[in-house]
Design goal:
The protein has 22 helices and no strands. The chain is mainly alpha-helical and 430 residues long. The protein has one domain: Proton glutamate symport protein (Orthogonal Bundle). The longest helix is centred in the first third of the chain and has 33 residues.
């Protein structure tokens, strides 16, 4: 037991249990611990732009093969679109088949719209302008503003351009490349220090949630929550498990390998809180730096598998709960619109509700006021969303690396079997 508690995983589990106990026994005190969770996530987010920049630039400059980088990027986008479509379709099918909202008989006029003010405003911003506006938002006002705002996609765009330029100038860029590599080691060392605070962050996040909402909060709209969790579990085990098998590795061994990060995400409901650690662990698995650097940050905005399930499932649930008849045309419209709106989710405050509002905004048949129903259990669904999205992006990185030959399979198997330290990061093509 002492050995278990010395590990970060053991400390996070203990913090999780203590948070639940505090939330149940002393809810008023537990709610005041929220700054612990918020502070931990802010510390991690502080380093994300710089870490993404260093990993991407060093990876691209190190390969010296810009055609390979472009090929990986195109394959990643194709993979993301296929998986996102499957996830959106699964949400539609399960909602239509299991009908979690049928029988609620909610009158839309009786719902209080006051809680949706901020979300509606952000939804209008997200849905206005369409694809051209979204693409323009990928371009930062200045290179510095991308880092100052912490916009991962803008940082990624600048990093790719910087890495390509560094590769093109050859030996003259060697000193800059070495400096960036050294800087990445410093940043990951800082991240190692911050990660030691993960148990405190988990304690604060869980204590606040249980103290504020109560341990029995899941009873409300339980059917929707259960269907969503079942859908995410099905997608992870069947779809992502199948992709891992085709890649020659085990999904469950990968989950065990990432258990500390998954526990932190479970407690904080934020996959941002572990982005740097995930990138480090995938590199340690034997995946080429440039592949990790391209796939993971891009996937955080373009490969939201569990989020996609949530959007279509919740949209149909609201229609069912408010007794709104929907046609096959409406279902296809939800699917098509969600493919676009889900891409703008990352970095938007209250992104799940905002993107759902933007989706319903384009489908007048479904009353958007029904979002109030989903809002009450959004935090609980957020746990599965964050976990499902993170697992999906890790599997995507493994699959694309295997597809491109950017993973040392022998080393990966050793790592997943727990037979080698995570500090071994050298890539050796299979």
């Amino acid at each position: 037991m002492p050995r278990f508690l010395k590990s970060i995983f053991g400390q996070v589990v203990l913090a999780l249990v203590l948070g639940v106990v505090l939330g149940v026994a002393w809810p008023d005190t537990a709610v005041k611990l929220k700054p612990l969770g918020d502070g931990f996530i802010k510390l991690v987010k502080m380093l994300i732009p710089l870490i993404v920049f260093c990993v991407v630039v060093h990876g691209i400059a190190g390969t010296g093969d810009l055609k390979r980088v472009g090929r990986v990027g195109i394959k990643a986008l194709i993979y993301f679109e296929v998986l996102t479509t499957l996830a959106l379709g699964l949400g539609l099918v399960l909602a239509y088949w299991l009908q979690p909202g049928v029988g609620m008989n909610v009158d839309p006029k009786a719902l209080d719209a006051s809680a949706l003010g901020t979300y509606a405003a952000n939804a209008d911003k997200l849905s206005s302008g369409g694809l051209p506006e979204f693409l323009l938002k990928l371009i930062p006002t200045t290179a510095v503003s991308a880092f100052a705002n912490g916009d991962v996609l803008q940082v990624l765009l600048f990093s790719i351009l910087f890495g390509c330029a560094l590769a093109l100038i050859g030996e003259r860029g060697q000193r800059v490349s070495s400096l960036i590599e050294d800087l990445s080691h410093v940043l990951f060392k800082i991240m190692g220090i911050i990660i030691k605070l993960a148990p405190l962050g988990v304690l604060g996040a869980i204590a606040f949630t249980v103290g504020k909402y109560g341990i029995g909060s899941l009873q409300q709209l339980a059917m929707l929550v259960l269907v969503f969790y079942a859908a995410v579990l099905m997608f992870v085990v069947v779809v992502l498990g199948g992709i891992m098998r085709m890649s020659g590795l085990s999904l469950f061994k990968l989950l065990r390998y990432l258990r500390e990060e998954l526990m932190v995400v479970f407690a904080t409901t934020s996959s941002d809180s572990v982005l740097p650690q995930i990138m480090a662990k995938l590199r340690a698995l034997g995946i080429r730096d440039s592949t990790v650097g391209l796939v993971i940050p891009t996937g955080y905005s373009f490969n939201l598998d569990a989020f996609s399930i949530y959007i279509t499932l919740a949209a149909v649930f609201i229609a069912q709960a408010t007794n709104t008849p929907i046609t096959m045309t409406d279902l296809l419209a939800i699917l098509a619109i969600s493919l676009v709106t889900s891409k703008g989710a990352h970095g938007v405050p209250g992104s799940a509700i905002v993107v759902l509002a933007a989706t319903l905004h384009a489908i007048p048949a479904i009353p958007a006021i029904g979002l109030v129903l989903v809002l009450s259990v959004d935090w609980f669904m957020g746990i599965a969303r964050a976990l499902g999205n993170l697992i999906g992006n890790c599997v995507a990185t493994v699959a694309i690396a295997r597809w491109e030959g950017d993973i040392d399979m022998a080393h990966a198997r050793i790592m997943l079997d727990g037979q080698a330290p995570a500090s071994e990061t050298s890539f050796k093509p299979s």
